[in-house]
Each structure stands twice: as C-alpha cells, then as structure tokens.
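Blackboard transcription, Thursday session:
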Amino acid sequence: MVEQYKQQQPYLLALDSIIFGFDGESLKVLLVKRGLEEQTWSLMGGWLQPNESLEQAAARILFDLTGLTNVYLEQLYAFGEPHRDPIVRTISVAYFSLVKVADYESKISERFQARWFSIYDLPPLLFDHGDMVDLAIKRLRYKAAQHPIGFELLPEKFTLPQLKKLYDAIYNTDFDKRNFSRKILSTNLLIKLDEKQKGFSRKGAFYYQVDSAKYQQLTSSFLNFIPNSDTIL
Amino acid sequence: MVEQYKQQQPYLLALDSIIFGFDGESLKVLLVKRGLEEQTWSLMGGWLQPNESLEQAAARILFDLTGLTNVYLEQLYAFGEPHRDPIVRTISVAYFSLVKVADYESKISERFQARWFSIYDLPPLLFDHGDMVDLAIKRLRYKAAQHPIGFELLPEKFTLPQLKKLYDAIYNTDFDKRNFSRKILSTNLLIKLDEKQKGFSRKGAFYYQVDSAKYQQLTSSFLNFIPNSDTIL
DNA sequence: TCAAAAGTGTTATGTTTACACCCATGG
DNA sequence: CCATGGGTGTAAACATAACACTTTTGA
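(Written on the board underneath:)
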C-alpha cells in the first residue's frame, strides 16, 4: 500500500514572495540580499515547514521580513524547472502580496538587507525570480482590473488622486481623472470622509475609505480596465 | 553553504489533472479509480520525476491516461494542506486540461477505470480533489470568458450551434444565439467552411474552424462573458 | 407539407470615451 | 492674486441585451 509512496523521490519545497508596495509615486517590489547569494537581489523566501500549509508558510515568511500580518496574499504559481535552483532541486510556490508601505516602514526588519525597487527598474534577480516578478505584475494587473484589491496598497484613508496615481502606476498609463473617479465611485465601495488631505495641494483632496462591509462580499467583477494581458489566467 | 538545504525536510510532489471534455451536450471531467483507493473516484495523478518540469510531468501523466499529446494544459494551483493526503504529506500541483473527447475515445487506456462525469453530477472524490475540480471550473469559466480556449474542447471543425452549446454548458446558461454568433464572429477568429454538418438537423449547420494564425497571436481580451466568479485570479 | 433546427436584423439601453472649465486654498 | 492641484458634466461612439420571423430540408 504505502510502497508506492516510499519509492518516490521527495523534493525541497520553498516559498517565494513578490511583495508589492506603493509609495505614492510608483509601484515597488521589495527585494532582499539573503544568505547564500550576497551578491544578488532576490525575493524573500523560505522553506515549507512540516506543520504548516503553503499559505501559512508564505504568511510566516512575509511576517519575518515585514512584521506584517493580515496582509493580502495570493498564490501565484508553482515553479519547478529541474535546475531552477542549481544546487538542489527545489520546487518553489510563489505568492504575491500587497502591503501598505507606511505600515511596513516603521517595522522594517534589520535582519535583512531589504529595498524597494520600482517595477520598471529592477536589478537582475536570483534564479527564476525575475520570471516570478514578471508573472506577478501581469497577475496584479489582471486581478486589479476585476477585483478591488488596489486598496490593499494604500493607507486606510486615501484620496481619489492617490488612487488614480496607484492605478496609473499599476498599468503604466494615465487614466482620465473624470472617467476614473466616475468609475471608481460607481462601485459604491468608497465612503467619502469629511476630512481633507492637507499639505500636499492648496485645495486639499477629500479622503475616502473602503466600505469594508461591501468590500468583503464583493467578489464579482468590479472595474474593467483589463489592458492587453496574457496572464496565465 | 549547502547546510541550509540539508536541514530542510523534503516532501513528495504529486501532480493531479482536471481533464475537461465536451460531448456535445455537457461539460465533463474525466475521473479514474486508481491504485490505493479502489473505492473512490479521483483525478488522474502521478509523481514528479527528477528529470522533468512540473508541466512536463503533468503532460506525461495526461498522456498515460489519454494517449493525447499537444493538449491544452494550464497550471491551476498548488495544494499543500498538511494532511490533505493522510498517509504521507504530499504537495500536489494541479493542472487542468482541455481535450477533444473524440480524439480520446479511440485511444482510451484500458489500464485505468476511467469515466467521464458531468460537472454538475460528480461523485465524492479522493482527498481534496473535489476542491481542485471546483477551482478548475471557476478558472475555466473565468478564462474562457477572456481567452479563446473553448475551441480546445471541440473537434477541428465545428458548427456555431455546437459552440453555443459548449458555452451554455460551461456557464450553465442559455445564451441568445443571435447575440452569441455576432459576438463570436466579431472576433474574426473563425473561418467559415463551405461544408455543412449533415445528419443532425434537417437544414444542416455550416462548419467553422479556428483561424490558427490569429489564434496564436491572440492573447488579449476576447469575449466578455465573465459571470460572477471569485476565482483565485 | 411540416417539424426541427439554422440563420439573420433592429431597437433600446447602458457603458465607455473624449474632452475643458471652474473651484479652493496657501503662499 | 495667482499658481497648483481638485473637482465636476456632457455629448458621441460603441457595446450589449432583448426580441421574432424566415429559411432549409429530410422524413
């Protein structure tokens, strides 16, 4: 019975995280210089432990680097080319996550050399981590066009101009602000606050926040930006 | 250096395939009764071999059951709950594939008890295979709304009524045939043949085939059926 | 000749795009 | 008072949805 299992070759199983952040200007990915390869930037990663699920492992690894919990985390793809890690064959399940940069800044771990890189200006990456990032960007674009996940990258309170800048950054374009706000507001997912952002512009922009009740139930289609995208979806 | 690797626990790595087929009436999944669990229907699956990539392994396993090559195959998700396989911890990377039932019928392997089941009438499945099928259905719906993959489930030559029946089956609905054919034909992806289908209806429906040149390059949005769907995408 | 499926067109409604001016405020 | 960014409306083009009748032909 169990013979069938015993004959099989086991493999190392790693998790790698593409951690996205938005600093108000451009879409960033958090990279580290870790252990073995001091020379090369790589994604934050780690090993699956015997008692945890893939998602738990990805969350734990993310927590180790950022100190953040309750972060948006989604499985991206399993990478398993035989020699992707040249030392020992390793299967890596990549996750991508969306973090609020402000939350992170204060808690940044000193244990890692970590830096945010613009997605349009990435250094060479370890192994197939470059492919992982490319795929994650496609997936983020695909997903953000259909599901209201962009908010995960912004602070609790944000202005419409900030939100537009985020979408501009994600899609590397410049949306029309009139059409943009009409489209966003038509989802009824945002609550306008009385408070205005001060200090950035003279006039000040109203803050909004996500209507979390609606946000929870919202699974179906949301916006429809979908630009050209040949995602794995 | 390599110490870091040696301390890590390796895991068995399996592949499971959700094989979709369309018999002209309803959308089917191919299930087997295999080895250990003679009582329970399960997805076709197998183990990753040391020399092959995940996708190669999935293709090999699919070939073993169906004899088919050059089949549409897409990675679905990695399943890794600690006790999903109660005997030995196993990570399974699920793939879904779209096959032409007619091609399969003739080559069906005798080595497996295999049967097509309607997606609306599935038996209880081994382990978490039910979750895999559910997710695969969602993914197929999501994907088929945006990418012209439906054709993978039909013969080379097919009629518009057949294609509509396929989409009706995928989305469990009844599209308006006028709107449907307008929408499909507006993609310019189909070539109308001179030949009519005989024997099924009195009048006979024209055959079409995919314009494969256009099919190749077509990666961007295609149709826009997208019904409610909370896919992992 | 008639039953059964194939094929086709129009209108109304909603969505998307393109586009430009006034507003509020701090300096 | 003026420069800067915030905020809003409208019309044209396009896409979608709803809907019914005519055509073909084998039995």
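Lecturer's comment: Residues 176, 178-179, 183, 201-204, 224 of chain A lie near DNA strand C (CB under 10 Å from a C1').
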